[in-house]
Amino acid sequence: MEIISKVADLQQKIAEVRASGGRVGLVPTMGALHEGHLQLVRRCVAENDCCVVSIFVNPTQFNDKNDLLHYPRTLEADCELLRTAGCTVAFAPSVEEMYPEEDTRVFDLGPVAEVMEGRYRPGHFNGVAQIVSKLFWAATPDRAYFGEKDFQQIAVIRSMARLIDSPVEIVDCPIVREADGLALSSRNRRLTPEQRKNAVNISATLFKSRTFAGNHTVAETLAFVTDTINAVEGLEVEYYEIVDGRTLLPVSDWGQTDYIVGCVTVYCGEVRLIDNVIYCR
Ligand code: PAF
To answer: Counting beta carbons within 10 angstroms of the beta carbon of residue 63, is it exposed (0 to 12), middle (13 to 18) or buried (19 or more)?
Structure first.
C-alpha cells in the first residue's frame, strides 16, 4: 500500500491505473478507522482494481470547533488496518493541501441538506460537499463508498454529485454494529465505560420501535422512541424524525411512501451519536 499526501501524486497514481484499464474506488474517511470503515474498504477492494482510502479530518464540516479539536487522529494505526484490508492507496493530505485557499463555494443541495442535521449543524453539509467534491476531483473514482449510518449524508452527497455533474457511482453500504447493537462510530471511543453501557439503549430502542410501529401511528412511534431514550440516565435525544427515505421529509402516515426511515441524534454526555432504523424499503 502506498501512502500519498499530495493531490498531484495521487493523480499520477490514478493515471497509471487508468492506463492499464483499471477501475478506481474511493472510500472517503476522517480516519480513526473501525470495522464499519473496513467493511467499506473490503467491498471497494473487491469491486475495483485500485482502492483509494482518504484520511482527512475536514475542518470545514465542523460547526463545533471543540468537536474538531477532540476528533481522534490515529494515522499510523489506520494505515496498518488499511494495509491488512488490501487497500491500494491511503491518501492522507494536510489541510493546506486540500485547502490551499479558502473554499468559498456554497452548494445548493436542496431540502435534503436543510432537514435534521442541516437544522442542528448549520454549514456542516456544505463542508461535506466541499471536501467530497475535492476528493472526487483528486481521485476521479468510478465508485465511492459511504456507510448508511450517516443516512442523510449519502442523500446530500448524491445531491452534490448531481450539481457538479459527477459521473461517480455512489455506493451505500449497510450500518455495521457492535455485537450488542450499538452502531460503530469513531466517536464511540470517546465514551466512558458507563456511557458506553447507556449508549446501547439507542439502537435497542430503534429495533423495538420497528415492532411498536406495527400497531401504532407515526406520532406514537416518534414519542415512544424519544421518551424511551430520554428515560435512560445520561442520554438526551436531540431529534428523532421519521422520514421518507428518498426526500428525507417527515412522514405522518405509514402508508405515505414505500421507503421510511427513522433518524436519531442522541447526546451521550458530550458525545453526539447518530443512528437510524429502516421501517420499510
Ligand atoms: O463521513 C465522514 O467521515 C465524512 O463526513 C466524510 C464523508 C469523509 C467527509 O469528510
So the answer is: middle
Instruction: Enter the pTM of the model.
Output: 0.96
Q: Using the predicted structure, report yes or no on whether residue 221 has a pLDDT greater than 90.
A: yes
Q: Which atom of ligand 1 is nearest to the CA of 61?
A: 10
Mean pLDDT of 97-105: 98
The residue to mutate among 30, 34, 53, having the most atoms of ligand 1 within 8 angstroms of its beta carbon, is: 30
CA of 211 to the centre of ligand 1 (A): 32
The chain-wide mean pLDDT, for the chain, equals 97
How far apart (Å, rounded) are the C-alpha atoms in residues 188 and 205?
Answer: 18
The response to whether residue 274 sits with its C-beta less than 6 Å from ligand 1 reads no
* Atom 2 (ligand 1) nearest CA: 29
CA of 29 to the centre of ligand 1 (A): 5
